[in-house]
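Please fill in the sequence for the structure shown.

STRUCTURE ENCODING:
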């Protein structure tokens, strides 16, 4: 977060040096970071241990652009998965108490139109393998050519069909805003939520996680353009 060092009146003028000097990093309220998958290699920041049969996610320069690339291969039930690390190993980095906001841009290149094939968002790093029911988290799921907003507390989950009019966009912009009272989900329109959940909110710590799965011997392929996470600073 950036804030002003001084307060000025409307229409006050100054030099560019004044402007640059006036803006400083502020850690009083929020801490944020983003990943654009240009460097370093995926395994520096992301754990791939939940990949099962599919290809490990990699940095990929495709269509003149840098992405993280997940590919299952064409055998049913194969998974390609990546979860953000803490201190160089699989682990959680935030929680519902931090009021995290995850924003990401995802290109769903191909997947079968029957069965669970995609999930991404804020999920407990210690949860069972991807696509297991009732994971602790707040995330998006693609199942049978529809996209769902999902919250889970480890014992039960709440799902809402948030498929845009006209179907799932191949390239989409997604946001999850999580607080201790609700989870709000956005797709492309960042002003109007597609769903708000107040039940089955995650009660474990969370990390960022992306997973795809093959169905009916059809590849699933996903490119992640970028991901950002904002969370409140710990105040004790």
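FILLED IN BY: designer on duty
SEQUENCE:
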């Amino acid at each position: 977060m950036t804030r002003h060092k001084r307060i000025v009146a409307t229409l006050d003028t100054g030099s560019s040096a004044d402007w640059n000097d006036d803006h400083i990093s502020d850690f009083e309220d929020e801490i944020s970071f983003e990943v654009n998958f240009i460097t370093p290699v995926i395994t520096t920041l992301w754990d791939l241990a939940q990949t099962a049969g599919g290809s490990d996610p990699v940095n990929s320069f495709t269509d003149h652009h840098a992405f993280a690339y997940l590919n299952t291969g064409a055998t049913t039930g194969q998974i390609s998965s990546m979860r953000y690390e803490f201190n160089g190993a699989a682990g959680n980095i935030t929680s519902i108490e931090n009021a995290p906001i995850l924003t990401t841009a995802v290109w769903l290149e191909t997947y079968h139109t029957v069965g669970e094939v995609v999930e991404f968002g804020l999920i407990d790093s210690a949860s069972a393998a991807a696509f297991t029911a009732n994971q602790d988290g707040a995330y998006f799921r693609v199942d049978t050519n529809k996209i769902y907003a999902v919250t889970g507390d480890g014992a039960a989950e709440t799902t809402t069909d948030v498929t845009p009019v006209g179907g799932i966009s191949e390239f989409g912009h997604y946001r999850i805003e999580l607080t201790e009272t609700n989870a709000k989900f956005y797709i492309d329109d960042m002003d109007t939520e597609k769903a708000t959940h107040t039940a089955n909110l995650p009660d474990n710590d969370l990390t960022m996680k992306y997973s795809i799965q093959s169905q009916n011997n059809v590849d699933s392929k996903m490119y992640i353009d970028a991901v950002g996470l904002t969370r409140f600073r710990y105040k004790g």
